[in-house]
Amino acid sequence: MMTAQVFKEMKAEAFADRLLDTLNGGAVALMTSIGHRTGLFDTLAQLPPATSQAVADAAGLQERYVREWLGAMVTARFVDYNAIEQTYHLPSEHAAFLTRTASPNNLAAFSQYIPLLGSVEDQVIDCFYSGGGVPYSEYKRFHQVMAEDSGQTVVAALMEHVLPLMPGLVDALERGIEVMDVGCGSGRALNQMAMLFPHSRFTGYDFSEEAIATANIEAQSQGLTNVRFQIKDAATLDAVEQYDLITTFDAIHDQAKPDVVLNNIYRALRPNGTYFMQDIRAASDVSGNLEHPVGPLLYTISCLHCMTVSLAAGGLGLGAMWGEEKALEMLEEAGFKQVEIKQLDHDFQNNFYIVKKS
Hints:
One of its GO terms (molecular function) is demethylrebeccamycin--D-glucose O-methyltransferase activity. The chain is an alpha/beta fold.
């Protein structure tokens, strides 16, 4: 019979092993981000087994750094190594989740959040002691990474999966309606819709000058005349019954005043208009997220970004894991009575709230 002491020792050893796995995982996440940003995974996917010098030459990078990066990838079992020939090879089964051509399954793109969040660790720790938050301006690559993230998730799935969640919407967009995207970021989703539906008119608001500049440049480069972007805090929206469709993509939980924003969205919708809200699929209480496949990651992103940027603006600090229950409560308080939650088979991370204004 196992004694209590033996059980405690086994539990302690198992936890120590988990910690080692965590440390290795954190290191691999950093190197995965580097592999994505430098294009090393894309390069390896196109090469036969090759030496570190050949990989570096093909990628246009310095061999010594590439060799050390490859060491991390080999010991992490991402890349195969032939010790006799001293060659490296990225298996196609791994490339299917690590290369740009693998979108929307390119998990390497998501690894960029780890170093991005690590860059504000000192500021967030200060907030643990003094309160407040870290403003958006401290996140140097945030909108770039978010644009890539949404580009391979929401935008890539827009026509085939996302818009069909709302019956009749595609037909309405083809005929021509007024659409607003709140917290539009770099505007990829809105520019995509503007290109697909030239008879509809699109307006995007975000309070980031950098994001709006990027959105306008992209719209101009595509020759779009039915979309406009403007720098605006969503809490100051003053439109009244102006839009047939309002969208928010992963934006409400970041707001300083999400309650005010939802009230503004309700007011801006025309009667029988639709509000489409994509946000994180989670429970409001941590006990409901114990089996969430990326629970630790999402709470980390929330603590080091979503929650703190809201608190920096004197906001509620909902965080990414505000959860389905809180979302439904706040939608009802804003005046919405008809709410339907839909999900996509290939997307375990998001809920899609289809909200009608009666």
